[in-house]
Amino acid sequence: MNPPSTFSSGLRHKNMRRRSQSPIPTKKPHDILPPIGDALRIIPLGGVEEIGKNMTAIEYGDEIIVVDAGILFSDDDTPGIDYILPNVKYLEERKDKIKALVITHGHLDHIGGIPYLIGRLGNPPIYTREFGALLIKKRQEEFPHLPALDMRIVDANDKSIPISPNFKVRFFGLTHSIPDSAGIIIETPYGDIFNTGDVRVENENGVPVEKEIEQYKEFKSRNILLFTMDSTGIDKAGFSPSEASILKNIDGIIKDAPGRIIIATFASQAERLIEFFKSARRYGKKIVIEGRSMKTNIDIIKHLNLVDTSDVIPLEDIEKYAPNKIMMISTGAQGEEFAALGRMANKTHKQIKLTRSDTIILSSSVIPGNDRAVERLKDNLFRQDAKVITYLDSDVHTSGHGKRGEIEWIHKQIPYKYFMPVHGSHFRLKMHAELAAALGCPRENIIVPENGSIIEISEGGNKFVKLPVRAPYEDMVVEGLTVGDIPEVVIRDRKMLAADGIFVIIALVNTRNGRLRKSPDIIARGFVYLRESQDLLSEARNVIKRSIESATAGSNPINFDHAKNIVTEDVSRFLFQKTAKKPIVIPVILGV
Questions:
Q1: What residues does each domain of the chain span?
Q2: How far apart are CA 384 and CA 343, in angstroms?
């Protein structure tokens, strides 16, 4: 069994958005999962080797509570994949134990997996605050074939909610970037587990505001057995700019803009959107909403009556007003090719043509992995001479994830015994563990998990270990209508197709003598342009002819599988020697 001080295990180098690339371990006889006994298990199934697809299970006896069910968006490492999901096979095998799915807040990396996973979990009741509930319901409308969800909305003033004989849950309001964000306090037989969800600290020049101080005071009288906390911003020093200062800066830009204002931000930044509406009204501007997700969230804001939306006009009416009376709130700040701002930038938007007098505010930071797309977006925007303002040159965005100073301040408010960092790639978790140790948490009380790690607290809360065996942790994926595993060989082939293309050989073989009936046909895609590579194709046909006929000579009957293997090896070697490329070679050999 691993010693408790497992946070000293080796650092992994990997993309901050991506999951672990570690090889799948070979199961040994002693790797069989031991009975749970009287232990309290905490199993992070996602969100601890990447930024995204957050999901954690807490298990005691015959009861399980699941916190969050998020997705991770695909990237260059996962061509053809729509979304990446946590592996829930451990939970599927125990779905009769699952008493609740508890949601911290409504971002897709915390709720996006619900339509794909809820059935596999036995459709347990979902406990969430109101804004999260509306986002879940809105997304569920895209899946009308699924059973109705058992939604249970928790009020801000609700105390501990009994979920099962051994679990109670309390929602703790905190600061993030979406309404109704909450941490989750799970009361267990051994003590409280506090999961912050995503969190930041509103502050003024690095000093937490009174609201933050007041809301964390309740922890002074609680003894937290296990503290699990968001690690996303641990690698950035200090405190984030306050949301109030960001809104003040944007308000000033809106006030002084000579023409149209176009603000691109995350559709989920509902609290910021509300303030944009107030600024527009303050300066007599009409509002145009562009982007599907933006319209969805504005509809929810309107439904909750969080702000007056009477100044919204349809895009078609934009020409009825002077440019300086128009403010557009749009999606596309991450450089998405077909988002509204992207289409404006590349001049394919049907109604909006950017001009020199336009002011564009990118009120968002760059999501890791989107750097190149955002670079292209900014290039295209600047080519049109519009004024572009980003968080790099002006305070027009602050993250929903606290920086190191905020994380340290929260640690000091929570009297905890054990600590487990979550929500971040491995180096962030390791940095967070080091911070906890520097603040006085004994190193043997800190565990850095991996996806599928099984953490146990036993002996009345006095033993804290990571088992040597993991729950299934290989990614599950959404690919079209399919949800499940995808073999690594499929992803590898897709990458090879993208890099070097495909080379298909169609050959007809005389079954009596093993000779080709005619010159083989060749189809190539993504490899070379055939019309300009006739010499290469001619040589390739000679290689194919020699290879097939040498493999079939004297054979009766012909072993076509053997012939295919030989020609694949020979042609692959020839093409690499001539082009330094390795296309996928597919031989089709027909006997006639």
A1: 38-238+399-478, 243-390, 489-591
A2: 13
- For residue 442, give the 3-state DSSP assignment: coil
DSSP line for 21-62 = -PPPPPP-GGGSPPP-TT-EEEEEEESSSBSS--EEEEEETT
Among positive and negative, which fits the CA dihedral 421, 423, 429, 434? Answer: negative
Phi, psi at 477, each rounded to 5°: -135, 160
**In whole angstroms, what is the distance from residue 154 CA to residue 467 CA?**
34
On the 0-12 / 13-18 / 19+ scale of CB atoms within 10 A, 324 is: middle
Topology annotation, domain 489-591? Ubiquitin-like (UB roll) (3.10.20)
pLDDT of 162-206, one tens digit each? Answer: 999 999 999 999 999 898 999 999 999 999 999 999 999 999 999
**10-residue averages of pLDDT along the chain (592 residues):** 36 34 42 87 95 95 97 76 90 96 95 95 96 93 92 88 96 92 96 96 93 92 93 94 90 92 89 93 94 90 91 92 94 83 89 90 78 86 87 81 96 97 95 97 97 96 95 86 72 78 92 88 86 87 91 83 92 92 91 84
CATH superfamily assigned to domain 243-390: Metallo-hydrolase/oxidoreductase (3.40.50.10710)
Q: Which of 467, 566, 433, 574 is nearest to 507 (CA)?
A: 566
Residue 502 · residue 586 · CB < 8 Å: yes
Please name the residue that has the structure tokens 């700040």.
333
Q: How distant, in Å, are the alpha carbons of 71, 87, 91, 229, 315 from that of 55?
A: 9, 9, 11, 13, 39
DSSP 428: H
Give the tens place of pLDDT for each residue, 467-505. 999 999 988 888 776 787 776 667 777 777 888 899 999
* Helices (H) then strands (E): counts for the chain: 15, 28
Closest alpha carbon to 427 in 15, 6, 4: 15
Q: How many CB atoms lie within 10 A of CB 162?
A: 10
Which residue type sits at 152? R
38-238+399-478 matches 243-390 in fold: no
**Pairing label, strands 482-484, 476-479:** antiparallel
The domain 38-238+399-478 having CATH identifier 3.40.50.300: the answer here is no
Question: Three-state DSSP class for 4?
Answer: coil
What phi and psi, each to the nearest 5 degrees, are found at residue 483?
Answer: -125, 125
286-290 and 326-330: which strand pairing? Answer: parallel
Q: Return d(Cα 557, Cα 309) in angstroms, integer.
A: 78
pLDDT digits (tens, 9 = 90+) for 16-26: 333 334 444 44
Angle between helices 270-282 and 243-256 (to 10 degrees): 30
